[in-house]
TrEMBL record:
<keyword id="KW-0574">Periplasm</keyword>
<keyword id="KW-0732">Signal</keyword>
<comment type="subunit">
    <text>Component of the lipopolysaccharide transport and assembly complex.</text>
</comment>
<dbReference type="InterPro" id="IPR014340">
    <property type="entry name" value="LptA"/>
</dbReference>
<dbReference type="InterPro" id="IPR052037">
    <property type="entry name" value="LPS_export_LptA"/>
</dbReference>
<dbReference type="Pfam" id="PF03968">
    <property type="entry name" value="LptD_N"/>
</dbReference>
<dbReference type="InterPro" id="IPR005653">
    <property type="entry name" value="OstA-like_N"/>
</dbReference>
<keyword id="KW-0813">Transport</keyword>
<comment type="function">
    <text>Involved in the assembly of lipopolysaccharide (LPS). Required for the translocation of LPS from the inner membrane to the outer membrane. May form a bridge between the inner membrane and the outer membrane, via interactions with LptC and LptD, thereby facilitating LPS transfer across the periplasm.</text>
</comment>
<comment type="similarity">
    <text>Belongs to the LptA family.</text>
</comment>
<feature type="region of interest" description="Disordered">
    <location>
        <begin position="147"/>
        <end position="167"/>
    </location>
</feature>
<feature type="domain" description="Organic solvent tolerance-like N-terminal">
    <location>
        <begin position="32"/>
        <end position="143"/>
    </location>
</feature>
<protein>
    <recommendedName>
        <fullName>Lipopolysaccharide export system protein LptA</fullName>
    </recommendedName>
</protein>
<feature type="signal peptide">
    <location>
        <begin position="1"/>
        <end position="21"/>
    </location>
</feature>
């Protein structure tokens, strides 16, 4: 395996442009990745991180057993984290709150700017609001969330909304 400094720099630049950064200053923060192993297939445009993978940029954190990054021509196409479960958290500066999520698989599609959580998926905001189900799809551009049940497995969507008690 041959990893060039240029490739690693490009990978860091790709991530730094990701939508996960909580604000514009964080989008320029360095990306830190740790894992037990890394396999880079530069010609295929794929990197596979395995073993307690942790990705951090500013307040955004993603962790899983395996993270597969598709980056043809050094352009981020998809990022898929798998785990039992895979987890993410992000601080939303405007709302002064944390958003945390988990699923067996978390996939980010850079072109469509859609995050899909599948397999026992849940997203929670500051221990107040929570949505869970077999599949959650968040469209970053439209700021919409779609939750899908699984009739074959008899899994349904669950939503918990906690009223603000300060008012």
């Amino acid at each position: 395996m041959r990893i060039t400094n240029t490739f690693l720099l490009c990978l860091a630049m790709i991530f730094s442009q990701s939508v996960y950064a909580a604000d514009k200053d964080e989008s320029k923060a360095p990306v830190q990745i740790s894992a037990d192993s890394l396999q880079v297939m530069e010609q295929q445009g794929t990197s596979i991180y395995q073993g307690q993978v942790k990705i951090k940029q500013g307040s955004f954190e993603l962790s899983g057993d395996e993270v597969i990054v598709k980056h043809p021509n050094n352009q981020l196409k998809t990022l898929t984290a798998k785990g039992k479960p895979a987890n993410f958290q992000r601080y939303i500066q405007e709302e002064k709150t944390w958003v945390k999520g988990q699923a067996e698989q978390i996939t980010y599609d850079a072109k469509s700017r859609i995050v899909t959580l599948t397999g026992n998926a849940s997203v929670e905001q500051s221990s107040k609001h929570r949505i869970s189900g077999p599949e959650l799809i968040y469209d970053i551009e439209k700021q919409t969330l779609q939750a899908n049940s699984s009739p074959s497995q008899k899994q349904r969507i669950s939503v918990t909304l906690t009223p603000d008690t300060e008012n």
